[in-house]
Amino acid sequence: MKNPDAAPVLEVHLSIQCDIYGRRLRVDFLHKLRDEAKYPDLDTLVAQIGRDVDNAKHYLNTHHA
Questions:
Q1: 1, 34, 55, 56: least buried by Cβ within 10 Å?
Q2: 6-46, pLDDT tens digit by residue?
């Protein structure tokens, strides 16, 4: 059950080839991929993350080309 008083959380996946630890980043929210979900095991979670990455790339390629 979700806590109505909890602060919203945004999870961001970055696909970059440089060290950004300790640096500030700006994140622009463009599109919600899906609602929060729980997964029965790590393999299912990893598979969903892969689908999320594919869906995000598809969105960016079709809406922000």
A1: 1
A2: 887 778 888 888 999 999 989 888 999 999 899 999 999 99
